[in-house]
Specification:
The complex is a heterotrimer of chains A (412), B (246) and C (129). By secondary structure, chain B is α+β, with helices and mostly antiparallel strands. Helices cover 22% and strands 18% of the residues of chain B. Chain C folds into two domains: 55 residues, no CATH class; 37 residues, no CATH class. Chain C has four helices and no strands. Classes of the chains: A mainly alpha (412), B alpha+beta (246), C mainly alpha (129).
Amino acid sequence: MKYPVCREIEGKSSAYVALLVILGGLVALGLGAAIYMEHQGHHVTGMNNQIVWGMPHVFAVFLIVAASGALNVASISSVFGKVVYKPLAPLSGLLAIALLVGGLVVLVLDLGHPDRLIVAMTNYNFKSIFAWNIFLYNGFLAVVAVYLWMLMERRMNTYTKAAGMVAFVWRLILTTGTGSIFGFLVARQFYDAAIMAPMFIVMSFSFGLAVFILVLFVSFWGTGRPMGEVIVDRMRSLLSLFVLAVLFLVAIFHVTNLYATEHHGIESFILRDGGIYTMMFWVGYVFVGSVLPLLLLNFSGSSRSEVVAVSAGLVILGGLAMMYVIIIGGQAYPLVMFPGYEVVSDFSDGVVNVYRPSLPEILLGMGGVAFALTIVAFGVKVLRFLPLSLADKDIDPHYRPDTAGGATASGA
Amino acid sequence: MANNDTNIDQYRRRFLERSTAVLAAGVIAPGVFLHTVANARPADEAVTSKVRWGMLVDSGKCKTGCDKCVKACEVENGLTRTGRPEIDAQWIRKVTLKNKQTGHTTSLPMLCQHCAEPPCVDVCPTGASFKRADGIVLVDKHICIGCRYCMMACPYKARSFIHEDITDQKAHAPRGKGTVESCTFCVHRVDKGQSPACVSACDEGAMVFGDMNDPQSEISQRLREVQSMEIRGDLGLNLGVRYQGI
Amino acid sequence: MPGVRIMMRVAVLLFLVTPVWAGTPVPEIPKGKGQQCVEDTAMMRTNHMEFILHQRDDTMHRGIRTKKHSLKECIECHAVKGDDGMPVSVESPKHFCSVCHRYAAVSIDCFQCHNSKPEIKLTGDRNGQ
């Protein structure tokens, strides 16, 4: 097998320029929305004193979760020594960094006082899982950057495995940390579950891979670089596995919740009576985000890259729906302060809280996504992140010319 | 209604003697209520953990429909209405409970419970949420970045985020956009030796405020005598606000 | 870096007190109530932020409510009346804290929360006790 070669993309096509213009526009809109929110105050968002985290957090948490998952491909190659994935490792690292930065930007811009970022950097409360996460996030960026360096600088290659190992362990801790942001909220019935952290880890596998697949395929279609069946099929089966794993953990989560009487209220809310949240869960996450992609990936009888890409897109939509259910749905259900009592007040006690996302906060969230993708689009142009070829003969050590079809990516 | 709000000047012995006398009167005469907190500190002395401020609410005396405590809090701290209740700051609110089985209703004020183990303090990334040595849970708005994690963590919905610009604040209660706030037990009054505004405003005598660490204080005595409970006591947060008669 | 800060302060101070810029309007700092400030005037000019920031943490976290360095008291003594005879807010360029800050391009966020006007004293207790 040849050594996998990565090269910058040319980045002169009108499609590339158009992509940058669109992404730039979205970033500008997001930034504008953030300035507007900051200037006006959060009353221009749908968030209020009951639903305190809204759309920006749905996007931000999704991006952060996907970031650690996007690193999986690199981990599989460097830590578990699967050579087929080796040419994909640089892109995997770049995407991880980009998604994390995108998510963090959204989180920061949603703060009541983004201007006090320096305060957040200089005042740490070490008991706070949030503060720990600030460390974990910054550390992740550093660790992945070092890993990329080891990977892409030939004379450093010997350390790739060690760096990859560190990055792998770090990303597991990071996702555990993100999950724990919710898991530590004992006051809220929906979040008070130890399974939150493992659930976030498998979600990160699935959502991160889905984003990775979309980015990879689109860049290959766009640049006309060849992509063989082997890689597409690997992506197909891996995604399918991860989607199934998430579904399994989500099922466990709800079943264990149903087991505990004090969680019956919130469970019947999410699963049956929650209106938009029930819809988001069953239609958004379960059907569109899990069942449909599973069917497409496994029973459509096709291993074509388009089918896998569409499935990845559906997984992403389902992931966002899941985040909405967890973050917003978890807050919409009234806090139980007095079990056995009906509670009435003029401060929304005992009633389902209403949340109507407003345009600025959605724009802010999308801006974060666009920002992450802009980083990737720039990255692949200025540095060697993208493999020249993913044709079977170039990546598969067991390749025999007589059996493989040597399919190239369509639409090149 | 007795008014014994006292200035720091009258601090120390004389003051203590007098307040014990009033305390005795308060115990004897029902409805007459004590507004004096037994130990005003000199202004230049730091708070210590020798004191733990607490409140006992007697929901049996709390009248349904009465919101004097809420109004007093708003006046004292300059809380204004925005016209959109869902974003209004709410430091204290009246809650009506109806027993699902018996239909019996109870009325009570909900406010920051000033936990000894406050979840909001644990989760705050910058340490803006903190517990003063004397047990009062506060937000240091100077380092609050407005992340609202404390609001997610609070089991009592006791905190509010400021969603718009505020002007003409009370000088003793600075408040501003983009930060989180909650009941301060009227810390500026407590530091002067007065009771929180809600307690002073309650004509029914449904609220007792005092030092839970001082066995002689009215609140300690009452807590010894009557059956009281903590809301969501299962969380083991050791609350500074206790309820009687739920 | 304290060194840099001190140098900057000295520079700004020199800038403020030296009447060499004929033509440039050097701000006229309104005088406070009473004879003198809570500390030496020169000291206040350069170090007022240290005092109030220290007081801020003392009051907030330790419950110390001495009046000397309290922001509330600065506002009481340094109120500047506007054309309508009422104290102006920090929005006004005439406000004591605005005069130099605008001149020296210092921006502070204190008055997002703190009232920049002295409290109007009402007779009797507001709570009707």
